[in-house]
């Protein structure tokens, strides 16, 4: 009935808690645990083999011989999932409600109009203690494309998602998850799902997200400390819009947003010109215009951007 897709890398300190939270689930159906370890240099693979030996009928291990990257690993795991539904969990997070899977599956079985479900979650530190002043986010009830696009929200954190297995018989190109960004897949998966239907979010808190921000850690909060997040966000958004355009078409609002990210890419480069930002600008303009003549594209944008800057200054 369910395939639990577990993404893990350098999680030896957390992976037992994650796996135990899956195994504690009280359900009336069969489920498998498909774990993709992205060539961890620590004891994570060893721990996974231990669990697979204890539960040989439950685990499917995908132990990479070389590092694929987080999103490529995540996408490949899902392509190996055989269940009717997919539940997601990263190796440093964990579930807290033993009835989580049953609740979400029961809802989807009774409501075929929804593509997936999510729920509230807690935020904990590296020692599994609540982080003061930080709470999970969730808007209970139906979550639509408008919530995602207009409000800029997500229905829930990765560990909260359970959705129909769209990878069994793919009707569209879902490999965009691996191509849009090398690390972040949450916004991509959300866009894919909402392109196929709405997501129902529960007010119940049924999982914990680990928040760690320190050098050397493998989570996004830590990795992003050394990366140009603004430029990557710009490129990610543009790639997702292009995917949506190619697979489903764009509304007028979607077309306007493509222009917005086009201007953002140029503004980022003008503010702080780096090789990375130049490459981002090139790709964004090439994706939109269908041509490699990006300098001419830039020249066409500059008057409008300068006008906006002058207008804002005069207004202030």
Question: What can you tell me about this protein's structure?
Answer:
- The protein is α/β, with parallel strands linked by helices and 316 residues long.
- The chain has 12 helices and 9 strands.
- Helix 9 (229-248) packs antiparallel against helix 10 (252-271) and helix 10 runs antiparallel to helix 11 (275-289).
Percent in helix = 40-55%
Q: Write down the secondary-structure element order.
A: EHEHEHEEHEEHEHHEHHHHH
Classification by helices and strands: alpha/beta
**What is the makeup of the main sheet?**
9 strands, mixed
Identify low-pLDDT runs.
none
Give the count of helical stretches: 12
The general outline is: globular
Q: What is the tally of beta strands? A: 9
Specify Rg, calculated over alpha carbons: 21 Å
Mean pLDDT: 89
What share of the residues does DSSP label as strand, in percent? Answer: 15-25%
CA(first)-CA(last) distance? 58 Å
